[in-house]
């Protein structure tokens, strides 16, 4: 994240849950292209006949699903710095799956899980859970190695027995409260950042009483030093 988003995280003590249809990827949260093209050969007639209704519900759900995205890796990723930070003033938060889960202080029912990367042209959408599409992405995004926090409005709340579905609860998303000192285990400064940013982050972390240590990334440090 950039420095302003980092400060926003500290100021709000919350993760921002972005509405799924606001992401750049138009396939975010959709069923696969293969599923749409082959539904009548994949499923028996009874299920095939109601699939258009399920597809419609999937489209409605996409507007009523909210996610917060993390990169899962044992090592620092040069690609993620380049893709998600457009300046040298970048920050990365290090945590664990357990700490991420334990840090959530809201009583809102959220899920946390790995995103599965599949070929949308040659694989069917798994059935049995209405929220499966929210944990599927195309192979082209496999470099993200994403773990996501997910909240979905329940179809019964906005769709069942209603001639017109209720509008989504949130226009762009909502803030999910967290305990920062459980969530943040280390704070990494961009490998291209100037010294002043490191010093500023130290001051900001002290102001917000964050216990985690601050680390200047040495990703591009010369091997001769």
Per-chain topology:
Elements: H1 3-12, E1 14-19, H2 33-42, H3 45-62, E2 65-71, H4 78-84, E3 91-94, H5 97-103, E4 111-114, E5 116-118, E6 136-138, E7 146-152, H6 155-158, E8 173-177, H7 180-183, E9 186-189, H8 195-207, E10 213-216
Parallel strand pairs: 5-6, 9-10
Antiparallel strand pairs: 1-2, 1-8, 2-7, 3-9, 4-7
Structure explained in plain terms:
- Helix 2 runs antiparallel to helix 3.
- The chain has a five-stranded antiparallel beta sheet, with helices on both faces. Strands 3-9-10 form a three-stranded mixed beta sheet, with helices on one face. Strands 5-6 form a two-stranded parallel sheet.
- The radius of gyration is 20 Å and the shape is elongated.
- It has helices spanning 3-12, 33-42, 45-62, 78-84, 97-103, 155-158, 180-183, 195-207, and strands at residues 14-19, 65-71, 91-94, 111-114, 116-118, 136-138, 146-152, 173-177, 186-189, 213-216.
- By secondary structure, the chain is an alpha+beta fold.
- It has eight helices and ten strands.
- It has one domain (3-216).
